[in-house]
Design a protein that fits this description.
The protein is α+β, with helices and mostly antiparallel strands. It has two domains: 261 residues, Naphthalene 1,2-dioxygenase Alpha Subunit, Chain A, domain 1 (Alpha-Beta Complex); 112 residues, 3-layer Sandwich (Rieske Iron-sulfur Protein). Helices cover 25% and strands 25% of the residues. Strands 1-10-9-4-3-2-5 form a seven-stranded antiparallel β-sheet, with no helix packed on it.
Length: 389
Amino acid sequence: MDLFDPNTYRAVRRPLTQAETLPTQVYTSPEFYQREIETIFMKYWNCVGREDYIKNPGEYFIRELVGTSLIIMRGNDGKCRAFLNACRHRGTKLLDQDGRCNVIQCPYHGWSYGVDGRLVAFNRMESVENLAPKDYGLVEIKLETWSGFIFVNFDPDSISLKQYLGNIGRHTDSYHFEEMVTIRRKEYVVRTNWKAYVENSIEPIHLPLVHGKTIGHVFGSTNAQWELIDGRPGNFVIQHTITDRSRAVLHNDRGFANLPNLTGTAAEGAQYVLIHPCTVIGGDLDIMWFKQMQPDGPHMVRNIAALCVPKSALEHPDYEEIIPNYLKRMDMVVNEDSAIAERQFEGMKNPLTRPGRYSSYEKLVHLFDNWVLDQVFGPEAVAARAAAE
C-alpha cells in the first residue's frame, strides 16, 4: 500500500454512507506522521493553553509541540508572546518548568533575555564584531488569542487565527470563555495515535459501553438529541447534544447554576467543539472544559485536560463542595477514554487489520479524516473531496 498516493483513499472520499474508514497504517506509520508534522502542525494554528496561565508580567509556561519546545510568556506590556526555548548563543534549552522571572538567563554561558525576548546581556563577546543585541533576541513564534485561548503558528505567512476559525463565534460567543477561570489542568500520556484519540472525542456511539458507569446513559436517552455541525470553511466541527441539564457532572451530582444569557446552540445543551487539528472544547450549560490531544510521535498522545469555571462559580458559597463533582466526572471519563483508546490502538497495530465503515453518527469522524487528507495531500485533495461529495 502506498500511503502517499491519493488514490489509496478513494473509499474514504466517498459520501458518509458509502465511505470506508482510513487504513490503519495511517495511524501507525512514522512516515505518515512525519508528513502530518510538515503539512499540519508546522502550518496551522495549534492551541497551547489559556491566557490566565500567565496573568502577570514575567509569568510563563512551557509547551512541547511536535518536538519543538516553546516558552509562552507575558511581557511587561501585558502582551503574550511565544519564543523558541533555545538560547541564541549555542542553542541551549533555557527553561524547564512553568514559573515567573524578570530575566531569562541561559544556564550554559549566561546570555540573558528580557521578558519580551530581547537580548540584554552576553558574556565574553567583547571582541566579536558587529554583534547587535537587537539581532539576537529569542526567536519569536507567531501567537494570537481567541476567547482566552492561546494559539501559535510556526508559519509566519499563515492566515490569521480569525480567518482560520471562521464563524465559530456564532456557536461560542455567548459562553464568554475569555472571562472563565482555569482551576485545574492535568496531563495524561496515552499510547495511541493522535487522530484516533481525536476521533473518539467527536462521536457519541462509544458512550454506552466505554462510559457505562459515568455518562453512557446520554446516548440514546429520550432527553438527548444529537446535532453534528460542519464548520467549514472554518477549521472546526461541533458535536452538539441537545439537553436541558449539564453534562459536566454525573447524573445525580450537584452542579452550579446555568450560565446566564446563553444563545443559539449554546443555550440548547452541551457542545463539543473540535478545533483542528487536536483541541476539543466542551462548552456546557454551566462550565467549560477542554483538552489538547497533542501528538508525541505516531504512537503517543499527551492529553492536557483542563477545567474552567465562570467567576460566579468561584463566589458560590458551596464552591468547595460542588467543584469536586466536576473534577471527578472529568477524571473518570478521561480515564475511560484513554483505556479504550489504548485497546483500540493495539488492534490497529495488527498488520492484518482492514478498514471498516462509518456510522451515520460518525459524520464528524468522516469530516475530520478527510480534513487530515486534505492537508497531507494539498489543494488537489480538497478538489477530489469536493467532487466526491
